Amino acid sequence: QVHLVESGGGSVQAGGSLRLSCAASGYTHSAYCMAWFRQAPGKERERVASIGSDGTTSYADSVKDRFTISKDNAKNTLYLQMNSLKPEDTRIYYCAAVWWYPPTCLYSTDFPYWGQGTQVTVSS
Q1: Distance CA 84, CA 14 (A)
Q2: Would you say 18 and 85 are in contact if contact means Cβ atoms under 8 Å apart?
Q3: C-alpha triplet 52, 56, 108: angle, nearest 5°
Q4: Which of 6, 32, 33, 101 is the 20 to 30 Å CA partner of 54?
Q5: Does 29 score more than 80 pLDDT?
């Protein structure tokens, strides 16, 4: 049984920082690809960043140079360091993972496993 559990969300003022964590369990080997997505009420879920098993990363243009995705394979934990936060970053953030070769690591449909989400609120 695969479980992804996010933590680290909260409220912060614009310009501040937060670090999200996602603890994965249920597989003995590292995921092929893991990612962070975010979603606002009534909006589609959008990809924030993804990281492959080889450490290759990619980011949405809206967060490039502000957010950093990383993972600790020994702890089976995914991280998202968010700096210079803006009010428009206010969303529910979800981690996602796949343990086999997907079509890409870019779309929500590539990921069968999801966490429950953690709220990030940035005030101006």
Answers
A1: 7
A2: yes
A3: 45
A4: 6
A5: no
CB 90 within 8 A of CB 14: no
Contacts of 65 (CB under 8 A, 6+ apart): none
Q: Is 80 helix (H, G, I), strand (E, B) or coil?
A: strand
**Long-range contacts of 40-44, Cβ-Cβ distance < 8 Å, separation of 24 or more:** 40/90, 40/91, 40/92
Residue type, 59: Y
d(CA 45, CA 121): 16
CA-based nearest residue to 97, from 39, 18, 29: 29
* Number of residues in the chain: 124
**Which uninterrupted H or E stretch holds 16?**
none
